[in-house]
Amino acid sequence: MLKKQYRLGKKERTGLSSPLGIRHTALFVMRFWETENLYPRFAFVVTKRVDKKAVERNRLRRMMQACVQKHYSKIHRGYIIVVSAKKEMKGSSGENVCQQITTVLKKEQIL
User: Fold this and answer.
1) What is the CATH number of the domain that holds 11?
2) Inter-residue contact 80 to 16 (CB < 8 Å)
3) The pTM of the whole model exceeds 0.90
4) Among 14, 22, 63, 76, which one has the highest count of C-beta atoms within 10 angstroms of its own C-beta?
5) CA-CA distance, 48 to 30, in Å (whole number)?
6) Chain centroid to CA 15: how far?
7) How many domains does the chain have?
């Protein structure tokens, strides 16, 4: 799990302006903003539309967090990144999700 200082709370997410970029994949939507922070901050959103069970939503959230935590030291500072899961993520493996997150971060030159 990411440390609290590297995570973005719900109240902090609501105050953000329009994102610098949005990337859609089959499994998630990634939005990012540039900031003056000394470290990148992340938020992982899994709504009830994805799954009604909190256990499953938490599993998906932990899966995304584990991928980001694995690559966190390589991520450039000064970004806020919000990853929102889609329904299709529910049936996919952790390796597939991690591969897609890594691909998007590399394309955006954040990783």
Assistant:
1) 3.30.230.10
2) yes
3) no
4) 63
5) 18
6) 17
7) 1
The answer to whether the CB of 80 falls within 8 A of the CB of 37 is: yes
**Cβ neighbours for 80, distance < 8 A, ≥ 6 positions apart:** 8, 16, 32, 33, 35, 37, 40, 41, 42, 43
Encode pLDDT of 15-69 as tens digits. 677 778 899 999 999 998 888 878 898 999 999 999 999 999 999 999 999 999 9
**Which tokens in the block code for residue 63?**
């899966």
- Asked if residue 67 lies in contact with residue 5, where contact means CB atoms within 8 angstroms, the answer is no
Q: Which tokens belong to 26?
A: 């089959």
